[in-house]
Design a protein that fits this description.
Blueprint lengths: L1 E6 L4 E8 L4 E8 L4 H13 L4 E9 L3 H18 L3 E5 H8 L7 E8 L2 E6 L2 E6 L10 E4 L3 H10 L4 E3 L7 H13 L30
Parallel strand pairs: 1-4, 4-5, 6-9, 9-10
Antiparallel strand pairs: 1-2, 2-3, 6-7, 7-8
Length: about 210
């Protein structure tokens, strides 16, 4: 009896199998690019050989557009084929699972692009220019790949910021976040990508190509 978790929201893709007792049974990782589409199914194939998987969890974002769509599609396909529940876990939920005993609010800062950050706090995801990141009114902790930069900015304003050592999601956290929801009696949330900014891709000025004849 175990949980399979996938994460490809950051710069690397990860996969883990966690037992019902919380023990890590398997963990693997691969670069997000190049070759994620080819590598992630191979990692999944190795993991399912362990057998006994009862639930699947996947990070839904915000994060890498390609990574999220690839990992979510793979998790959806495997869960549907195996007839297993699929739990969609937000990036903020995954980081919270890493610090179950943290005695201050946790903010997660994820780099969107140069000079722009996704800030996840209190269940809300929003995008800010680095210099416009809001100043907390009470002590907070910071995690995420942009945490060090944002912590320095906030500390310079006099904010009480605890910088954690969590920079990238461990897929084990994704599994444990889903397990906590299950233990609380919650039902699986839809595994759909969570986007903060609209897609940057735009339709060609001349319009889409006509369908092939």
């Amino acid at each position: 009896m175990s949980w399979l978790a996938l994460d490809a929201s950051g710069t690397r893709a990860g996969l883990a199998v966690v037992g019902q007792d919380g023990a890590v049974l398997h963990r693997a990782a691969a670069p997000l690019r190049p070759g994620l589409i080819e590598a992630l199914p191979l990692l999944l194939d190795e993991a399912v050989k362990l057998g006994g998987i009862t639930d699947v969890a996947v990070t839904i974002g915000p994060g890498s557009f390609t990574g999220l769509r690839t990992s979510i599609a793979l998790a959806q396909g495997f869960a549907a084929a195996a007839g297993l529940p699929l739990w969609g876990i937000g990036v903020e939920q995954a980081y919270h699972a890493a610090f179950p005993q943290l005695h201050r609010p946790l903010w997660v800062a994820v780099r969107a692009r140069r000079g722009r950050v996704f800030l996840l706090r209190d269940g809300v995801a929003a995008a800010f220019a680095d210099e416009d990141t809001p100043t907390p009114r009470a002590p907070i902790a910071l995690a995420g790949d942009a945490a060090a930069e944002i912590a320095a900015r906030l500390a310079a304003r006099g904010a009480d910021v605890l910088l954690t050592n969590a920079r990238a999601i461990d897929p084990v956290w994704v599994a444990r976040a889903a397990m906590a929801q299950h233990e609380a009696g919650l039902t699986p949330q839809p595994a759909q990508p969570l986007y903060v900014d609209p897609p940057e891709a735009k339709r060609p000025a001349a319009g889409l190509r006509p369908p092939p004849v």
